[in-house]
Every structure is written in C-alpha cells, then in structure tokens.
Design brief:
single chain, Hypothetical protein af1432, 70% helix
C-alpha cells in the first residue's frame, strides 16, 4: 500500500530529480575547475612573462643610471684634470657633499644624488685657457675675470638637460662660488638665495682645496683650515653648514684619509 502512496511517489520523484541535478552540478563544477586551472596557468604564464619583461626594463634603467653617473663623474674629473687636480679631489668633494647633505636634513636619495652631481662643479673650467688655470702665482684682475666665467659656462653646459641629476649639477656649478655675505660670483647673491646645493658644494670644495697641494700653493695644515672656517662662518659659508662640519669632523677626516692623494 505504501508503494501507491502519492506522497512517497512524489518524494521518490524529487529524489531522482535531485540526484540528476546534483550529478550535473558536480560535472559542471569539475569542468569549471579544469577551465579555471587552464585559465590560471595561462594567467600565471602571462604574469611571469610580464615580470620578466619588467625585470629587463628595470635592469636597463639601472644600467642607464649607472652609465649617467659614470659620465658625470668622468666629465667632472676631466674638468679638474685640466687644472692639474687629481681624480681623488672630485671623489672627496662628492663624499663631503653627501655627508653635509644628510646632516643638513636631506633624505638619503637626494644626498646620494648630490654626491653624484658634485663632481661637475668645475666642469666650466674646460673653457678656461691653460695659461690661467695652471698659473703658479696670483691672477691679474683680467685673469680673475676670465677665471670667474667657469661658473656660468658650467651652468650653460648643463642647464638644458631635463635629467634631475644634470639639473642639480647645473645649479651647483653656477652657485658654488657664491658667498653667504653676497660677495661671491657670478651673481653676488647671498644667504639662502644661494641654493643649498651651491652652499654645500662651496664648503666641500674649499675644505678639499685648502688641504691639497695646488700649482699656486702648498696644502694648509688642519688648524689653519679650521681657523679659516670659523672666521668665514656667516661670511663665505652658511653658518649652519660650518656647524655641521665641525660637529661631524671625524667623518670628513675619514673620507680624506680614504681617498688621500698618492
């Protein structure tokens, strides 16, 4: 009698229908999983190819940046070599500039860029006659006027570039002979009108120049250099940078020792 019960028959029908639908759903799920697996594999392959291309681009960019740094350093060394200065001069000035930049408050990236740009500070010397560059005595008034032109020449050589590194180099080439008191050249600007890149390069360059033999002078001893820096604090040099110099003197002396002329 139970077999003829309409309710049981309905339940059996529903069960059969449910099993059929369930089997179809299971098959659909398995098929979708296979499709997704193939899709995931294809997407992973595409992702891996994209990552490989990105790595190639990054490597090329790194190579371009390193080449640019080498070119900048080499050009700076060429400018210095014409005035009989050693390659170690630009290395020392570069490191001094980075140290000053960091302690002044620049982030590591900007300080490193300043280190890379600073070798170009005297690039304008390539246009100054050897007879003036390597004169063993004091310049005449006319010779000094010619010598002063190297700052503006360096700026004109570099300022057309859109590269941040060369823009920085143009600025410090132009302004590293300006003085805090406004008595420098080429424009006679003063104080914070002088870009921080120029103010930093000024103190780095002078410190190294005074401590090195040049065609027109013998190297000064440290006490004489330090006395001049104290005297020129707020005159030639940014007073804050002079304070930083003395507060971190051991770092500057370590750089000088590491890149000492031989």
């Amino acid at each position: 009698m139970n077999d003829n019960n309409p309710l049981i028959s309905e339940i059996e029908t529903l069960r059969s229908s449910f099993l059929s639908i369930t089997e179809k759903l299971i098959k659909d799920i398995h098929r979708q999983e296979k499709i997704m697996a193939r899709s995931d594999k294809r997407q992973k392959q595409e992702y891996d190819e994209l990552q490989a291309r990105l790595a190639e681009v990054q490597a090329l960019q790194q190579e371009i940046e390193e080449t640019q740094k080498e070119v900048v350093f080499t050009m700076g060394a060429i400018g210095e070599s014409r005035s009989k200065e050693t390659g170690n001069h630009v290395k020392r000035v570069a490191e001094y500039s980075r140290i000053l930049g960091l302690h002044y408050g620049m982030d590591a990236r900007e300080a490193e860029m300043l280190k890379q740009a600073s070798p170009m500070h005297d690039i304008g010397k390539v246009a100054i006659p050897d007879s003036i560059l390597n004169k063993p005595g004091r310049f005449s008034e006319d010779e000094f006027i010619v010598m002063q032109r190297h700052a503006e020449i360096g700026y004109m050589m570099l300022n057309k570039s859109t590269r941040p590194l060369l823009q920085m180099a143009a600025t410090l080439a132009y302004e590293h002979h300006e003085k805090w008191n406004g008595k420098g050249y080429p424009r006679g600007i003063s104080g914070e009108e002088i870009h921080i890149y120029g103010r930093i390069t000024a103190i780095a360059d002078v410190f190294d120049a005074l401590g090195s033999d040049r065609c027109y002078k013998k190297a000064w001893d440290d006490e004489r250099i330090f006395a001049l820096f104290r005297e020129e604090r707020g005159q030639h040099f940014d007073p804050k940078l002079v304070d930083i110099f003395f507060e971190h003197l051991d770092e500057f002396l370590a750089v000088r020792e590491k890149f000492r002329d031989v």
